Amino acid sequence: MTKYREILRLKSLGFSDRNIARSCSVSRNTVRRVIDKANEMDISWPLDFSMTDGALEKLLFPSDKSVTDRRLPDYDYIRKELLRNGVTKKLLWIEYCEECRQADEEPRRRSLFLGEEQSLLAPLPATPFELAEWKIATVQFNYHIAVDGMYYLVPHQYIKDKVDVRVTDTTIEAFYHHDRIASHRRLHGRNGLYSTVTEHMPDDHQKYLEWNGDRFRRWADQIGPNTRKAVDAILTSGRVELQSYRSCMGLLRLADKHTSQRLEKACERALSYSGKPSYKSIKNLITAMKQEPDALPSDEEGKPRGITRGARYYGGNRS
Fold first, then answer.
1. Which end of the chain has fewer surrounding CB within 10 Å, N or C?
2. How many CA atoms lie less than 13 Å away from 290 in the CB half-sphere?
3. In angstroms, rounded to a whole number, what is the distance separating the alpha carbons of residues 24 and 3?
């Protein structure tokens, strides 16, 4: 039974509704309801000893039934019924509620919820609950993890480590030893897409982001038409953009190392073998061409050599 006397006594001492509810093991709504009703009927502390909690309940809420007067389940019956095949607690609960309805009574569990527990419920989360799936992934040498055919960057120091991955419809999160190390919006569409966070890349790799497809094409135009075709082929090869940039940077380094002329010639030869040459094939060709002395035209080509005899020599007129 509700401690009506204690509620009124504590209120007279200036306690807050929250503290009274905690002390009397009731909800704040119940405390406020008792105090408002007592004020309405001009009932205040101190009370006569004859004014028990039961008497106060009849006086304040004459039409209400005490929680203890609610119809209780027959627990002996429930224990016996649960031993029978096919009988569940849910089935017995439905049966109990139906008996209460027929007797024009409220089930005790519901009355307890409405009177004591409902006001203590926390509000629902601002965003709907998302079902999550957990997976294990290994961080690859390009510091990405593969999840359902897509690639997500994690800090480069975790290369070769196994991480736990939390997957929802909207988010991919990577955890290492229970600490979250990366979070990405989940990618959708064709397989092979990459999600990259610049801060997770090594410093010497971040420089690739200073380049884009247009800048590589302008650079290739300065070398020659075959280099331009090779760069176009690499950029449109279906690879992830970041990976194709690295291949194009490799071509740039080849030009610095072997000269632009040799790179143009190597691209020409690579294009004769395949319409979509790779950086590796061009690199192998330009290395092999170093062994071919006549692979490229020289500035000296067309000039007479010291061991070359002209037509005049063989014609007999040496003057």
1. C
2. 9
3. 6
Q: What is the pLDDT of residue 304?
A: 45
Q: Would you give the DSSP letter of residue 296?
A: S
Cα distance between residue 49 and residue 47, in whole Å: 6
Please say whether the beta carbons of 165 and 145 come within 8 A.
yes
Residue type, 172: I
Answer for the pair 30, 64: CB distance below 8 angstroms, yes or no. Answer: no
C-beta neighbour count of 133 within 10 angstroms: 11
Give the span between the Cα atoms of 185 and 179, in whole angstroms: 18
What span, in angstroms and rounded, lies between the C-alpha atoms of 273 and 226?
13
pLDDT tens digit sequence for 88-127: 998 888 888 877 777 776 666 676 677 777 877 888 888 7
Helix (H, G, I), strand (E, B), or coil: what is residue 276? coil
pLDDT of residue 200: 64
Q: Can you give the pLDDT at residue 240? A: 55
The Cα 128–Cα 288 span in angstroms is 61
Long-range contacts of 127-130 (CB under 8 A, 24+ apart): 130/168, 130/169, 130/170, 130/171
Beta bridge partners of 182: 174
Pick the more confident residue, 35 or 108. 35
Two tokens, residue 231 = 């760069």
The Cα–Cα gap between 308 and 199 comes to 64
Spatial distance between the Cα atoms of 172 and 307, rounded to a whole number of angstroms: 72
